[in-house]
Amino acid sequence: MKSFHSRFDDKPKKDDESQSKPGKYTPKTIKELEQQVSDMKLVDRCAAKLGLRLIGCHSDKTVEIYTDIYRGENNPCFLLKVWSDSWFRLNTHIYIDKITPNFKQRFYKIYMIGADNLFSVYPFEGKGEHRDKMGVEFGMEIFKAGFNAKVLKKVVETFEKILEETKPLL
To answer: CB burial class (10 A; 0-12, 13-18, 19+) of residue 137?
Structure first.
């Protein structure tokens, strides 16, 4: 059973053609296209400098960039940028079974691990294969002007630390 994952639980709606085929969305304007190319080059350059792999890149009418970030075989987080935002979001999800002994105490410890590392922490109800679990999203937002390899390295390392610290609590 996999406790960590980095993908959206919600499936695209079949009646919306631009959503149904990830990676097939075409920006509506030259400005959008230039923005997307510039942003993707920035992310790609930083990841390459750090030896990180970007897997599963796609976009749609809401999401400018979505990609999983890998260091070796580990997937500590994913990167998301919405068209209307001037920042990148790095997030990861973990799940804790609701029938875990001392669920509330464990959940609180998980929450505090994220908060102590200055990450935003959002609880959510699991869906699909995780429907009997409580999800926790850890997130960090980085403004485009401050996005560089040094910052990305620190954020990815902190995600790895958080995932390692929360593993015994799941």
So the answer is: middle
Pairing of the two strands 133-143 and 120-125? antiparallel
Phi then psi for 111, rounded to 5 degrees?
-55, -45
pLDDT at 160 over 80: yes
Q: Per-residue pLDDT tens for 140-151? A: 999 999 999 999
Kindly list the domain boundaries of the chain, sorted by start residue: 13-169
Q: What is the pLDDT of residues 39-72, one digit of tens each?
A: 999 999 999 999 999 999 999 889 999 999 999 9
**Domain 13-169 CATH class label:** alpha beta
The model's pTM is 0.79
Distant-in-sequence contacts of 150-156, Cβ < 8 A, 24+ apart: 152/46, 152/47, 152/50, 152/52, 153/50, 155/77, 155/90, 156/50, 156/52, 156/69, 156/71, 156/76, 156/77, 156/90
- Which strand (E) or helix (H) includes residue 77? strand 74-82
3-state secondary structure of 67: strand
